[in-house]
Specification:
Layout lengths: L24 H9 L1 H4 L5 E2 L6 E6 L2 E7 L12 H14 L14 H13 L4 E5 L2 H12 L5 E5 L4 H10 L2 E5 L4 H10 L5 E6 L11 H10 L3 E5 L14 H4 L8 E5 L9 E5 L1 H7 L4 H4 L6 H15 L3 H19 L11 E7 L2 H13 L2 E2 L2 E2 L9 E6 L6 H16 L9
Parallel strand pairs: 3-12, 5-6, 5-7, 7-8, 8-9
Antiparallel strand pairs: 1-2, 2-3, 4-10, 9-10, 11-14, 13-14
Helix pairs in contact: 3-12, 4-12, 5-6, 7-8, 13-15
Length: 418
């Protein structure tokens, strides 16, 4: 990987081809030249998601410590969750076979809606069969042309795409900066507006600074939507997210989250006022024109919610593991950025070739981490992203730290990288 390391996916967004069904020639050449690096993406999971598992990358099978999956509470293989899904599969079959509006909702779906609304102290809940589509659809469902969406600069792409889909004006404020938010809201006075933030920012691992941001939104009389994808069931005394963590339940208009992280399932949901959600059900195309979640998935999610909230043990274990990993990682000299959550970036810098060489070496030495490249992060902020879970043991974390120190700190890169 030589000159090809000078490029990234951002360089080929606009195609030089006359036919939209033909990829850019430059991309084809670049991908071929850097095939060994691109093969680090789309690894094959050879079994259930677990702290120690087998994966296959570029044709190489390895037994690895998994620090890349969002199974924050370890519920992906929890016996009660698995049994609930199996029982629903036997009773309800494999799929919903219809959109929620027409024929896809079962009593299981309605039960999960009621339970999530009650858990989060809201009036109603909408379920989505995709986390990305849910985040995108929620914004597309409430915003219209002429509205202004004011997003934190590090907000997830699903929110950005939702604003674009709605044809509302997209405005960014500097990450977690109340002065920048104040200026953006001042500049957009006279329009209908909505502020969008995240509970935990997925690439940096820090939280929305609600104590400083919410007073600004309230001063301008503007509502707030928060995406709790990486914080639901993790933050707060009862797992109700960053909103609960900061005691801001009464200051948030809509709360969105995904099921693919701590819930260890798939899909997403939005909670909020009943009248608003009733309206949104008919204007979110990602809801009304998509098949409902499979009943077996819904049953697993209901059991996951029960297991995660019956006591604080899983959450306490997750936070103990997070503190341990962060402390030890800093001691060996890893750059973890400025976050404090269970999402832990390991900063690599701007050397793209080194990022992929490290990825291959980590894999061969028994540690599964995915490379995070530009444009997902800034060009000088290439990184790995660690996901700590309650299922990791101290032995898992110690071995992972040993591999990271040997590879990243001591610089022992696999010589087989080409």
């Amino acid at each position: 990987m030589g000159r090809e390391a000078e490029h990234s996916l951002a360089d080929f967004y606009f195609s030089d081809s006359d036919d939209p069904l033909c990829p850019p020639e430059g991309f084809v050449q670049w991908a071929e030249a850097g095939s060994w690096a691109m093969s680090m993406y789309e690894p094959h999971m050879l079994g259930a998601v677990a702290p120690r598992m087998a994966i296959e990358r570029a044709g190489e099978r390895s037994d690895v410590i998994n620090l890349s999956s969002y199974n924050y509470l370890g519920l992906a293989t929890h016996p009660e969750v698995v049994e609930a899904a199996q029982e629903a599969l036997r009773t309800y079959g494999t799929g919903a076979c219809g959109s929620p509006l027409l024929s896809g909702l079962s009593d299981l779906h309605r039960g999960l809606e009621r339970e999530l609304a009650a858990f989060l102290g809201q009036e109603d809940c909408i379920l989505f069969n995709s986390g990305f589509a849910g985040g995108m659809g929620t914004l597309a469902g409430v915003l219209r042309k002429g509205d202004v969406a004011v997003l934190d600069a590090k907000t997830h792409l699903c929110s950005i795409d939702g604003v674009k889909l709605s044809r509302a004006k997209l405005v960014f404020f500097d990450h977690n900066d109340p002065d920048s938010l104040d200026q953006a809201l001042t500049d957009s006075e006279g329009a209908r507006r909505l502020v969008v933030v995240e509970g935990v920012y997925s690439m940096d691992g820090d939280t929305a600074d609600l104590p400083r941001l919410l007073p600004v939104a309230e001063k301008h009389g503007v509502g707030v939507l928060i995406d709790e994808a990486h914080s639901i069931l993790v933050y707060g005394a009862n797992g109700r997210g960053v909103v609960e963590h900061y005691g801001a339940e009464k200051s948030i208009g809509l709360q969105f989250a995904t099921f693919s992280k701590a819930f260890a399932g798939c899909g997403g949901f939005t909670v909020g006022p009943r009248a608003l959600l009733h309206y949104m059900r008919y204007y979110i195309n990602a809801y009304g024109f998509s098949c409902a979640l499979p009943p077996a998935v819904v049953a697993g999610l209901r059991k996951a919610l029960e297991v995660a909230t019956r006591d604080n043990s899983l959450r306490e274990t997750l936070w103990a593991n997070t503190r341990y990993f962060r402390e030890k990682a800093l001691q060996i000299g890893l750059d973890l950025g400025h976050g404090s959550s269970q999402v832990v970036p390991i900063m690599v810098g701007s050397d793209r070739r080194r990022l992929y060489e490290l990825t291959r070496t980590l894999h061969r030495r028994g540690l599964f981490l995915a490379p995070v490249d530009y444009p997902s992060v800034p060009e000088d902020g290439l990184r790995f992203r660690v996901a700590i879970t309650a299922a990791h043991t101290r032995a898992d974390l110690d071995r992972a730290l040993e591999i990271l120190e040997d590879t990243i700190i001591r610089g022992r890169v696999d010589e087989a990288a080409e």
